[in-house]
Amino acid sequence: MNEAGIEAVAYGVVGIPEDEEGARKVFQFARRMRIRTIVSEPRFEDFPLIERLVKETGVQVAIHNHATPNRYAQPQTVLDQVDGLDSRIGGCPDTGHWVRTGITPTDGLRLLKGRIIDVHLKDLDRFGEIRGALDVPFGSGVANVRDILAELTLQGYDGYIAIEHENPNDLQSPEEAILKGLEFIRGVTYWHDYERILRKTPRGYRKDGWNHYGPGLFELDRERGELSATGGMGLFWYSRKTYRDFVLEFDYRCTEPQTNSGIFVRVPDVPVDDSYIYHSFEIQIADNGEGIHATGAVYDAEPPTSLPVKPAGEWNTMKIRMVGNHIEVEVNDVLVVDWEMEPRGKV
Predict the structure, then answer these.
(1) Can you say whether the dihedral through the CA atoms of 116, 208, 319, 258 is positive or negative?
(2) DSSP state of 46
(3) Which DSSP string corresponds to 48-86?
């Protein structure tokens, strides 16, 4: 599969045998194949064994739902079974079968918030019909795929979404319907082509790929994915990958009105002393600063055209776009810098 550029990330829907020897074979197969998630519909009484094997192997288990009368047709049933178990045991909502059962997908997703490990995404032409409802391209049915994706985004869902299209009328050539659905998704998905540089794992956020130079510390809340800066002017820098043109988007908040921080861009090399300060530009975060030292400014070089910041304690969004030597800075959706960079100020 490596030669073909294919990576298996989930296995199922597959049965997990009731006996330990048989169940262990399923987990060992997934581990040998480097598959992260087993998707299954196990018996209720098998969860103690499943949890033990999850802890032993590190392989996740996602509970799938078929339509009524399946034992997991109701999302509450899934939640009741996984609640209190290892966090690597959760749900695999199948939005098509929820629609057939008469469950609004966004309601089911909200109920399972925090316990969703995998998703099977479908759109159907009819709601609440066990038989007769057919898969249709995303966006053309009743599942409200846009709201499904929005809800997953709001929850910070970081797993995979499996595309399924099982309309018997399209068996000979399902590609056309799938491509049409993907076109719809790209049209409503803001984060398309973005990558997360503060990595999230089933065990929480991690600082893998990040390093620190100088005094101070950036403490990470692994559950919420929030970094808190303490103890002096150090540089928390991303070393896993270098970038040419990019868009960096992040949320931040200042704990005090006099908070002073910033984002350095185009750092020329691995920082071993403070010389990076004079050879790269800093996008300033300092609400009590003025002009070229205010929030959104390219520090000491280009002032922001306005200060659309929120009071200390509230969250703001900043977006930095760099194409060649051209930089744009947005604060809370307001463009405050649009500048062709050149040596100026401290640089």
Answers:
(1) positive
(2) G
(3) HHHHHHHHHH--EEEEE--STTSTT-SHHHHHHHHTTS-
Report CA-CA distances (Å) from 321 to 94, 155, 329, 335. 37, 26, 6, 11
Strands 210-213 and 217-221: unpaired
Beta bridge partners, 316, equal: 252
Handedness of CA 184, 179, 60, 13 (dihedral sign): positive
Q: How many whole angstroms separate alpha carbon 210 and alpha carbon 148?
A: 32
Structure tokens at 71: 């034992």
CA distance 9 to 36: 5
Let me know: does 297 contact 283? Beta carbons within 8 Å.
yes
CB crowding 166-187: b at 16 or more within 10 Å, else e: eeeebeeebeebbeebeebbee
Average pLDDT, consecutive stretches of 10 residues, N- to C-terminus, the chain (347 residues): 82 94 96 94 97 96 97 97 96 98 98 96 96 94 96 90 90 89 92 86 85 92 90 89 93 93 92 92 95 97 96 96 96 98 93
DSSP state of 143: S
- Measure the CA–CA gap between 182 and 197, rounded to whole angstroms: 25
- In DSSP terms, which residues pair with 204 in a beta bridge? 201
pLDDT for 287: 93
State the pairing for strand pair 281-285/261-265.
Answer: antiparallel
Intra-chain end-to-end CA distance of the chain, in Å: 49
Distance of CA 120 to the CA centre of its chain: 16
| Strand 281-285 to 60-64 pairing | unpaired
